[in-house]
Amino acid sequence: MPKKPLRLAVVSCGAIAQAHLRGIAACRDGEVLAEGGPDPFAEQMREFVSAVLEGREPGNSGRDVLPSLAVIDAAYKSVEERRAVELRQDEGGRWEIQ
């Protein structure tokens, strides 16, 4: 059975943004506002390989994605507990879900 392509859709106030393996599209009220653009994963991998070959830290390090991961973790916790959760950063820079 063929696998369906991976897709992420974000919907808000009549607008939708979709990211999938073939590119990105933004729509509002059924009209496509923008689509295409570089593959974000390919661009990230290209930067990572360049950084390794040049012996430097990538432009986007693992530390840069920690806030995004905290939001994802909070979303999962919110769904799991069926309640709104609060996300705060402590003085040490760690993210806490309350």
UniProtKB/TrEMBL annotation:
Pfam families recorded: GFO_IDH_MocA_C (PF02894)
Sequence ranges assigned to domain Gfo/Idh/MocA-like oxidoreductase C-terminal in this UniProt record: 42-87
Gene3D superfamilies, alphabetized: Dihydrodipicolinate Reductase, domain 2
Name of the featured protein: Gfo/Idh/MocA-like oxidoreductase C-terminal domain-containing protein
Annotated source species: Handelsmanbacteria sp. (strain RIFCSPLOWO2_12_FULL_64_10)
